[in-house]
Design goal:
The complex is a heterodimer of chains A (387) and B (85). Chain A contains twelve helices and 20 strands. Chain A has 387 residues and is α/β, with parallel strands linked by helices. In chain A, the strands form four sheets. Chain A has an eight-stranded mixed β-sheet with strand order 6-7-5-15-16-17-14-18, sandwiched between helices. A six-stranded mixed β-sheet of chain A has the order 9-3-2-13-20-19. In chain A, strands 1-12-11-10 form a four-stranded mixed β-sheet, with no helix packed on it. In chain A, β10 and β11 (181-187) form a beta hairpin. In chain A, α1 (13-24) runs parallel beside α6. Chain B is of the alpha+beta class and 85 residues long. Helix content of chain B is 28%, strand content 8%. In chain B, strands 1-2 form a two-stranded antiparallel sheet. Chain B starts with a strand and ends in a 7-residue tail after the last strand. Classes of the chains: A alpha/beta (387), B alpha+beta (85). The A-B interface holds A 34-39, 43, 149, 152-153, 168-169, 171, 188-189, 226, 228-230, 271, 273, 276, 289, 291-292, 294-295, 297-299, 301-302, 308-317 and B 10, 24-27, 29-30, 33-34, 36, 39-41, 43, 62, 64-66, 71-73, 76-80, 82-84. The complex binds flavin-adenine dinucleotide. Residues 9-15, 32-35, 39-42, 44-48, 171-172, 200-204, 208, 223, 225, 277-278, 319-322, 344, 346-352 of chain A line the site of flavin-adenine dinucleotide (FAD).
Chain lengths: 387, 85
């Protein structure tokens, strides 16, 4: 039987980041992925690392800490992941949105985020493609981006260089415990003896939790994105609309008139393709998307940027954000099963938070308490009332 | 031969795909995620059969390997063609 100091379940951005840090600490690590590296949520998402939109407090501090890791990550991984601090904009379409965003900008500024409110003239100097009727925008130089496909691959390669064994097309089917402690992993291709398991299965984390009798409150939140043909650069940094912020932060208020959670998210890759979203819905793992959703995303985007009408779309993507409900992941050793760590639930921020997550989980496993200021907010227990 | 372009849209040569397969990729999805082959305007309609031939033989592939699905739209469409009206 194979043996390992630690087994990571899930080869998305989160699992590969964790495997890299564990291996770097000298642990004999095995990563198990049932499909392809970066083939699930981490391969069906946008590339934005948005800070200006983060709630002051843990959300913002985590994102800042992750950005700090990003700044030296290409050096650590030894290759390009197309990381760039390119800036980000939130476009404002109505008077109503403008008054909400004025308050929002003030709060963010008080929290120390460099963010400015621009009038429509200033906004169009940065993004000339914005429609005439826009009321303004916010802009922050802090926002960044990365290529999520390169990110998972680069983490996996670096993990392998540091001794991690990566088993793709291998599915975890059982976890055996002895006296309340993890002892063995069962896969379709054999067993692995280990006392440490990290559940980094993203939206599939609850199914892995069940294998040890643990209930993990993560649900899939579906998102749909269009991908366009390559076009010359039309955009600076990444662009959201204020509706997106409203539907993210005030979901309970907006659900009535925005059932699909439509909000613009637009970015252009280094190769010239536009990534254009998006939606936010709780519909389980349903991959069939009704045409109304594509129509709503298209109409919404073209209202804000009319010239998008004439750009060809070559593909659509459907992804399932792992949602805990409060916008924060669960990063903790299970209180009930010794050696079983949960590292999932990053919802719409997994790309932004992957670098810091690897460090936090490696620190949890080595029990050095280095990130207690974060992990005290990221426990499973905070959902005790729901379980 | 090695320089022969397999994916014309993204200009990915044979050697890049061979290297990826040698390093362990055994599905279309893995080759695509790692090389961009099939990500271009034709979405693999030209190169997919070629890439499939370069993958390890079907016998070697366990039954669990999922095949890569096809995604909307079937042909490139203008964004305005998705509107409701
Ligand atoms: C439309 C959309 C847009 C997004 N945009 C952004 C963005 O701009 N910025 C940002 O920061 N975040 C964004 N996100 C969020 C981000 O994509 C996710 O938070 C992140 O990808 C989650 O990564 P993960 O590794 O936890 O999950 P995944 O990538 O899903 O990885 C989990 C892995 O576990 C594997 N697995 C499951 N069960 C088993 C098993 N039994 N055995 C072995 N392996 C198993 C799966 O195959 C999968 O590969 C977006 C998400 C969506 C859907």
């Amino acid at each position: 039987m194979k043996t390992a100091d630690a087994v990571v379940i899930g080869g998305g951005v989160i699992g590969t980041s964790i495997a890299f840090r564990l291996a770097r600490k000298g642990l004999k690590t095995i990563l198990i992925e049932k499909g392809a590296i970066g083939g699930a949520t981490s391969g069906s998402c946008d590339k934005a690392i948005f800070l200006q939109s983060k709630k002051p407090g843990v959300h913002l501090e985590l994102a800042k800490a992750s950005l700090a890791v990003y700044k030296q990550l290409e050096h650590e991984l030894g290759e390009s992941i197309e990381f760039e601090q390119c800036g980000g904009m939130i476009a404002i379409e109505s008077e109503e949105q403008l008054s909400t965003m004025k308050e929002f900008v003030q709060k963010q500024q008080q929290a120390g985020i460099p963010i400015r409110l621009l009038d429509v003239y200033e906004a169009r100097q940065i993004q000339p493609v914005l429609a005439d009727h826009m009321r303004g925008a916010t802009w922050s130089e802090l926002d960044a981006e990365v290529n999520p496909l390169l990110l998972s691959q680069a983490f996996a390669k670096a993990a392998r260089r540091n001794g991690t064994e990566i088993l793709t097309h291998t599915e975890v089917q059982g976890i055996e415990c002895i006296q309340g402690r993890v002892a063995k992993i069962k896969t379709n291709l054999g067993e692995i003896a280990t006392e440490t398991v990290i559940n980094a299965a993203g939206p599939f984390a609850p199914a892995i939790g069940k294998l040890v009798g643990l209930s993990i409150p993560i649900v899939p939140r579906r998102g749909v994105i269009f991908i366009s043909e390559k076009v010359p650069p039309i955009l600076r940094g990444n662009l959201l609309c204020a509706q997106y912020i409203v539907s993210k932060h005030l979901a309970h208020l907006s659900e009535n008139y925005n059932p699909y959670g439509i909000g613009l998210s637009l970015g252009q890759t280094k190769s010239g393709n536009l990534l254009l979203g998006g939606s936010r819905e709780f519909v389980g793992f349903q991959k069939d998307v009704p045409p109304e959703i594509y129509a709503s995303i298209a109409e919404h985007a073209c209202r804000i940027i009319p010239s998008l009408r004439g750009i060809r779309m070559i593909r659509t993507m459907v992804g399932f954000r792992p949602s805990t409900g409060d916008g924060l992941p669960i990063l903790q050793e299970s209180p009930d099963v010794e050696g079983f760590y949960i590292a999932a639930g990053h919802e719409g921020d997994g790309i932004a938070l992957a670098p810091i997550t690897g460090q936090i989980v490696a620190s949890l496993v080595s029990k050095d308490n280095q990130f207690a200021h974060f992990t005290q907010h990221l426990t499973l227990n905070r959902f005790a009332a729901l379980l | 031969m090695d320089e022969m372009i397999i994916c014309r849209c993204e200009e990915i040569p044979l050697k890049t795909i061979r290297k990826t397969v040698q390093e362990g990729a055994c599905t279309i999805r893995e080759v695509k995620l790692q090389t961009r082959a099939g990500m271009g305007i034709c979405q693999g309609r030209t190169c997919r059969p070629l890439v499939e031939k370069l993958l390890p033989s079907e016998k070697e592939q366990a039954a669990v390997y999922q095949i890569s699905g096809y995604r909307l739209p079937v042909r490139p469409l203008l964004l305005q063609d998705f509107f409701k009206e």
